[in-house]
């Protein structure tokens, strides 16, 4: 009987332990993200920035549950295979399972933009930024959508915000200069 009682007590304690561990992992991940963003702002060159960006993106994806991680991988594969409608479905399923997951919104924005649904993509980017204002990838996507629509000022504004977070983004300064020239060309 003692053995059964011990198992019952342990099983009853599991739900209390698991959320605490998950919360601790989330806090540790947040500390790592804060450090990575500081390092990103201080990156000496584009190569270093690209490596830090990769680590940040990996930390963002670590926030996904296992089921969400599988759907994210499938959605990314769909985008790579020019199956944007399937990708949109996958990322919508991601957001059904984990509605506060900024990367789900950002990836669905990419899929929607690829499909030509710029309004839907912009709505998703707004959601991504609401959940994670430091999501430089979402800001970069917003800049590219504005550019695609011929909104040079909007493209410049979004790109500048991305560079405020990630000043050494690969090709960032060249793009900034190109967008500034486009805006100046519109003004003349």
Can you put this structure into words, describing what you see?
This protein has 188 residues and is mostly helical. The chain has a single domain, classed as Alpha Horseshoe (Serine Threonine Protein Phosphatase 5, Tetratricopeptide repeat). 82% of the residues lie in helices and 0% in strands.
SSE order = HHHHHHHHH
Please identify the structural class as seen in this structure.
Answer: mainly alpha
Helix content: over 70%
Oligomer: single chain
Whole-number tally of structural domains: 1
CATH architecture: Alpha Horseshoe
Mean pLDDT: 89
The largest sheet is: none
CATH topology: Serine Threonine Protein Phosphatase 5, Tetratricopeptide repeat
Number of helices: 9
Which runs of at least 5 residues are low in confidence (pLDDT < 50)?
A: 1-18
What is the C-alpha radius of gyration, as a whole number of Å? Answer: 20 Å
CATH classification class: Mainly Alpha
Looking at CATH, the homologous superfamily is Tetratricopeptide repeat domain
Distance between the termini: 87 Å
- Count of extended strands: 0
* Envelope shape: globular
Strand residue percentage: under 5%
Short description:
The chain is mostly helical and 188 residues long. It has helices at 2-41, 46-61, 66-80, 84-97, 102-114, 118-131, 136-148, 152-165, 172-187.
